[in-house]
Structure formats: structure tokens, C-alpha cells
Amino acid sequence: MGSIDSDMITPAGVLVPRLNPWEIMDWPSKQRRSIYRSWAQHFSIQRCYGAAQTYFEKCINEKPSDDDFRTLLMRNKFNRSIARPEEALLDSQKAATLVEPGNASVNLLMADALYDLNRFEDNKLLLHDNLRGQVGTTQQPFKHRLTIVNENFKDSVGDSMSPFLLRNSAKLSTIHELVLKPKKPSEPMPRWLANKNRTECDVQSLVEKNNRRISPLEAAWQQRKKKCFFQTYLHRSWVDVAFLKSLRDNPNVVLENYFSTAAERLNMMNKSCEHLSKFSRMLHARSPMYNEAYERMEYGEKADKFHEANMFRIQYQTRRNMVSILRTITALRAQNDIRRLRKFVEKTMGEYNVLKTTRVMPWKIEFMNEVYNHLALSLCESYRLPKSKISPYDNNSMCHLLGVSPLKPSEQRTVVFGDRSSYTYEDSGDAFEQAKEFKRSKLALENRLSFAKLAIERSYLLYELADVHMAQNQQVRCLFYAQKSIAEAKKCNSKIWEFLATMQQAKSHAILCKFERQSDVLDAAYQLAKELKSPQLCTFIELCRMLNRDYMTLRKMLQLVASKRLRSRLSNRSLTEKV
User: Fold this and answer.
1) Average pLDDT in the 108-123 region?
2) Residue 361 and residue 233 share a domain
3) Which structural domain, as residue segments, surrounds residue 330?
4) Smallest Cα–Cα separation from 215: which of 520, 539, 546, 447?
5) Do 270 and 317 reside in the same domain of the chain?
6) I want to staple 482 with a disulfide (CB 3.0 to 4.6 A). Which of 96, 281, 504, 546 is the partner?
């Protein structure tokens, strides 16, 4: 046996490290480097990237040797094969310091790493320098790569650039102001003044982040752009990319509540998506999308005709879908199924209509007015005369007449020790599920309201928000949204939605038993019913006004009786005191 390395000797009183069998033998440093290099090559071929990276590092971290640059070049190729061009460039630059200047193999790998990083200018400069410095057959690889990078420049700033700039010249000023224009360096100022200008507090606390809301149409545009991007560079494989991205949100794949490896699976899928995006961006840098589209358009007139025919097909299909939607709404109105009608309108206008532009749907405003007016007429038909008698001596008669539930005090539940059915849980039960559904619908309506521009649509959304708050017994918020709905209905001169929002206020006042305010609201509703020229609504509102007047009369009589009893008690007390 040879002499044992000093690195292999363990001091007394220290546990011997757990080593593999081949690490116990006293191989020479050069031999160990050769073994590590061979194993790194083997694992890289077998696609065991973690093990290959480990042995490459062990080989490089051994004692310095003359063949360090070879290991660095091998690791450069390995890093390029696993889409890590930054590390590959560092390895080639480190190898260049270990060899004489002008080494063809090292400079060639350095140029490839620069090309992978989309640094075409640096790549072209390096190739030209090596063409002047190399002679004979060593120039051929550099000439080949120079031809490729010249073609990339031709694709980026060649014939396809001019039509693209002419087509998007109107957007260039905005892009220049927001992205390309260099910002002036700000003058240094104290921290408290900078926070004051940003209306922030100078304490270590959680800062609230303002999340930017994206309209459904803008989100659909982004999805369409991503789809076109992957279709352009990955061709038919874009379906696999979309499937891989959908797996990240699939609970059947992640299974985070059942296995401890959920984070590893999610991390692996995220890394795969990141590599695909990086690879697609590399292809985009070599040949931008406008160049790809320019190369595909061999016949300009034929492509324009195809695009126009496709647009007409989408318009015709959209019109057929709208006719079908209106037919369904008419059928639901005939069935007097208001609940299904409201759900159908919410789904149609919130998921289908918002994704259509005026180019695809030139009659979009007329269609929206038609749908919302049909819904408003159906809601007005629910105000009918009752079949049973209405008595002013019943405090809930007004609520029953308007079709709302009277306000009931919350029931106190007694908890019995040992009886689990008497326990109340905050995250379970029918009440929790109902509150969760209300919260979901409220957030969806608020999100739609922030992007709605048509006044009749805003009036409808505010009316629905008022109805959601009424179902949660939040009558103050209900009155607030109903008042805003009336203001929006006045902007578009929609009497029927103004009437419905007014009746929403009447319902809230009936639940709160505010008869004086109810009187003013019913007078306004009666005036709107007269303007709508609906005898049925006028009769119904007149009955509500009569019942409200009876309520007020009974309340005054009760107050008079109570005051008379109080005076009699005071007079009797004064007489007894005199006696």
C-alpha cells in the first residue's frame, strides 16, 4: 500500500466520517479526478443531473491540476444541455484563464454560451475576433456560427421589421414613455420624507399590497397571446405545455393534504414550466413573432381574405349564440322561473358577453339592453296582489307583501357537554356554506362592477349587490347600493331599473320597520309605476301605501294610549302624595 494522504487521516477523538468504499482507498489526486470526471459523464448521459453536477464539483474542487480546463469545458457542455447558460458562460470564462489566449475550443464554447444567453452583439464580436486570430480549418466552426448569428440579426431587424413598425407606430410613443425612456435619478432624501410622499408609515409592519385587477377581457387576451406564442415556437407541442401548466392547479396531482412529497412535485412542475418558458423566449429572441408571421405570409391577399372570412365566421356564430340566449330568456320568462333566469343572465353576461369586443359583436350595447330589460320585466312581474288577506295588525304583513323574510333575532344555542351535535363550528355547517356562497357572489359582482362601463349594467350589478347584502341582513349596505343603483339608472334613463332599486329600498325599510321613510320610498315608486304605465304595479304600490299608512296610524294610537296611561299614573301618584 502507498502512503496515506493527510486528508484521509482522522484526528484522535473524532468520529470517522461515513465514506463510500471507493473513498476509503488512498487514490492519488489525479486518479480521483479522473474517476469523478468519468462518473459525471456517465450520470449526465443517464440524465441523473443532480449526481452529475455533484461529481463535476468534486472533480473541480480537488487539488489544482493541468487538466482543469477540460473538466470546465465538459461542465460547460453539461450546463448548456440542461438550459443553464449563465453557469456555462462562467465555466468557459474560467477555462479561458487557464489556457493560452486564442484557444479555439474554449472560445468556441464561450461563443455558444453567449449565443444561448441571447447576447448576439457580444457573440458576433467574439466570432469576428477569432476569425482574424485563427487559421486553417479552425476557422470553419466560427464561420458557421457567424452565418447563424447574421441570420438572427436579419430576422430581428431585417425585412420584417418595417411592416411591423408601420402597423404598430401608434403604440411606439406609449412604449417609449413607459419602458424605454430613461428615468431621471432621484435626489437623495431622508427616509421619513420618502415615506411621507408615498403615504407610508415608518414602522416595521405589514404593508398592504394593492393588487392590480385585470378585466376578464384582458385576461382572455393574455391567455390568447400565450397560446399563440407557444403555437408559434413549439408547434403541436403547445398542447403539452398547456396540459403541464394545468397540472400545477390540479388537486388530484398535487395531493398536498395526503403526501409529504407534494412540495417536491409542485417544485418539479414549476421548474419544468420555467425551462419551457426560457426555451421559448430564446427562440423568440432568435426570430421574433413578427418575423415568423412575415415568413408565413407568402401571399398577402390570400392571407387577408382568410383572416376576413374567419372574422365573419366568428361574427355569425356570435349572432347565432345571442339569438339562442334571447330565446332561452324568453322561455324562462314564460315559465315564470325568476331564480333560474337570474342565474342564467348572471352566467351569460359575466362569462360570455364580457369576452366579446365590439368588433366581433357590433350590436353589443343593444343586446345588453335587451337582456337586462327582459330581466327587469320578469322581476317586476313578481310584484302581484296577494291571494290572502293583509292585516295591519300583523307587523310582518309588509314583509310578506314585498316577498322578503322578516328580521328574526338570532337563536341562542346551548352547548351540552359531551353532546357533539350541540357544538358550533365556525368552518362547518349550513350557515358557514351559505356565508361562503354569499361572499363568493359578492366578490364576483364587485369585480364585474369595477370594469362595467354601461350604465344599465352598473345599475343591474348594484341591484344584485343590494340583494346579496339584504340576504345577509346587512340592511344599511343594502340601502347604500340601492341608492347607487338608482343614480346609475337615472344616467341611462331606465325607469324600470330605477323602480326596482326603489323597491329594494322599500324592502329594507319594511324589514327595519321604518314606516316614515317607507312612505317617501313608496311615493317615489308609485310615481315611477305611473311613468311605466303599468296598472298592475300601480295597484300593488297603492296597496303597500295603504298598509303603511295603517301602520303609522296604529303606531300613533298606541303612542297616545301609552301617553294617556302615563299621565293617569302620574296624577294618581300626586293625589296619594297629597293625602
Assistant:
1) 89
2) no
3) 301-380
4) 447
5) no
6) 504
- Which set of grid coordinates corresponds to residue 274? 420555467
What is the Cα–Cα distance from 268 to 250, expressed in whole angstroms? Answer: 14
Q: How far apart are CA 198 and CA 18, in angstroms?
A: 57
In a domain? residue 315: yes
256 in the same domain as 139: no
Q: Which amino acid is at 562?
A: A
pLDDT tens string 212-235:
778 888 888 888 899 989 998 988
204: left (phi over 0), alpha (psi -120 to 50) or beta: beta
pLDDT number for residue 2 = 42
How many domains does the chain fold into?
3
d(CA 474, CA 471): 8
Tell me, yes or no, if the pTM score tops 0.85: no
Residue 533 has pLDDT above 70, yes or no: yes
Contact between 475 and 508 (Cβ < 8 Å): yes
Buried b (16+ CB within 10 A) or exposed e, 474-488: bbebbbbbbebbbeb
* Gap between the Cα atoms of 411 and 428, Å rounded: 18
Query: Which range among 53-67, 173-187, 539-553 shows the weakest confidence by mean pLDDT?
Result: 173-187
Q: What's the CA angle centered on 241, arms 239 and 246, to 5 degrees?
A: 95
Domain boundary among 380, 412, 447: 380
- How many angstroms from the chain centroid is the CA of residue 150? 40
Find how far residue 262's CA is from the centre of its chain: 23
User: b/e per residue, 127-142, with b = 16+ CB within 10 A?
Assistant: beebeeebeeebbebb
On whether the CB atoms of residues 74 and 56 are closer than 8 A, the answer is: yes
CA 478 to CA 467: how far, in whole Å? 7
Nearest-angstrom CA–CA distance, 272 and 279? 11
